[in-house]
Amino acid sequence: MLVTGPNGAGKTNLLESLHVGTQGFSPRTRRDHELIRFGSDLSTISLRGSRGGTAVETGVALSTAAAKRATLNGATLPSAESLRRELQTLVFTPDRLAIVKGGPAARRAYFDRMLGRLQPARASLAADYAAAVAQRNAALRFSSPEAVEPWTEQVLSLGASLVESRRTLLAALAPGFAARADELGLSSAELAYEGAEPTREQLDAALERDRDRGTTSVGPHLHDVRLVAGGRDLRSFGSQGEQRLTVLSLLLAEVELLAAERGLRPLLLLDDVLSELDPGRRRVLASRVAAGGQTLVTATDASFLPIKPEQLLEVSPGIVRAA
């Protein structure tokens, strides 16, 4: 599906509503009140579609006076974010370049979310580990050494599981990432995990320093994933164009991995991705997304997409219509 319209017409708002309606949160902001029209107190999103031949209906209600609510096939969910455990949606927006050019925290969060999508049983692992680190930090600041020990055990156990899970994820993702990057002209692309499982010896050696600072200085909450092409670290030595290709390659590789491991391709949302690509790379991307699954692409002009879309929509302020 191709969505066209001039800048500021509302193409990104349409894409954002699809993300909220399938994942329960916005890819742009965590402040839900920003998703409600100025001057209004309520906003609702209702979607109908199918998954594996089965009808699916979702609804998300946002209010300035109440908590966000979500439904799936008429049943109220415990939280709006529960939608992401049922439906998979991947998104590219220009600010996603932070995955490459941002700090380690952005990459850790990105790959931990990917881990949750690919292995739902481990979706809470990163959050559980972060909670153990927070408890250990509190004990370091305010409690006796004996009170630190149980949380040290948790950090060791959960930290080892998190590192192993991240490494397994990257090993599965790497071949597809390299292949998609090569298609887009980014040769010899690699993913390199930087960090090792925390050990008792490391935590014991750092204990006094950690007590002085009130923080845990060893563990996967400090690790990074290095994105490399042609032997160059793309965070420091990649152009903005190469960083864009890197994010696209990661998305396309995850699409294939989700299809292989979970049997269904995710909904893919690509916002303003074509304008920065040359004609050759547009053709590569178009042929790749046309291979399967549902993709929504936004552009200011239909000519940017080098294939005929199955559906063409035009957006003007407040209106979406078939072209």
- How many separate helices? 11
The CA-CA distance between the termini, in Å, is 11 Å
CATH architecture of the largest domain: Up-down Bundle
Task: Please tell me how large the radius of gyration is.
Answer: 22 Å
Helix fraction? 40-55%
- The name CATH uses for the topology of the largest domain is Glutathione S-transferase Yfyf (Class Pi), Chain A, domain 2
Mind telling me the CATH class of the largest domain? Mainly Alpha
Structural class: alpha/beta
Taking pLDDT < 50 over at least 5 consecutive residues as the criterion, the unreliable ranges are none
Look at the structure and give the mean pLDDT: 95
Largest sheet strand order? 6-10-11-1-12-13
> Tell me, what's the shape?
globular
Count of discrete domains: 2
Q: Please indicate the percent range of residues in DSSP E strands (runs of 2 or more).
A: 15-25%
Count the beta strands: 13
Note the main sheet.
6 strands, mixed
Helix and strand sequence: EHEEEEHEHHHHEHHEEHHEHEEE
Q: What is the H level of CATH, i.e. the homologous superfamily of the largest domain?
A: RecF/RecN/SMC, N-terminal domain
